[in-house]
Amino acid sequence: MRGRVWRCANPGLAPERRAELVRDLMRARRAMGEARRSGDRAAGKSAKAAVDRAKRALGERGEPWWTDGAPDWNRYLVGNTPYADWYAALQIPPGTAG
Questions:
Q1: Distance (Å, rounded) from C-alpha 87 to C-alpha 41?
Q2: Burial of 12 (0-12, 13-18, 19+ CB in 10 A)
Q3: Which of 28, 33, 37, 46 has the smallest count of CB within 10 Å of its CB?
Q4: Distance CA 7, CA 74 (A)
Q5: What is the C-alpha radius of gyration for the chain, rounded to an integer number of angstroms?
Q6: What does the pLDDT profile of the chain (98 residues) look like in tens digits?
Q7: 3-state class of 77 per DSSP?
């Protein structure tokens, strides 16, 4: 997304657990939006922490969930990773979400 590599959720999570964590994440994101719209900084800080907890539990942040020793390229510009040629070959139009 926007030329960056983003880590996916741990595929080893049980489907029920993953669904629960995604619900938690969406709830926290809604709370962030509500806090932003109301100007409630304390609620925003709390909601941001809840987003971080959910993303870590999903495996999208924190220690890598894989065990093969591959580096974690999360949030790197794709052009600065081993995926640069692959990404360039996708021919994603400028201004799209890819």
A1: 38
A2: exposed
A3: 37
A4: 5
A5: 16
A6: 677 888 899 999 999 999 999 999 999 999 999 999 999 999 999 999 999 999 999 999 999 999 898 888 888 898 899 888 888 888 666 666 55
A7: strand
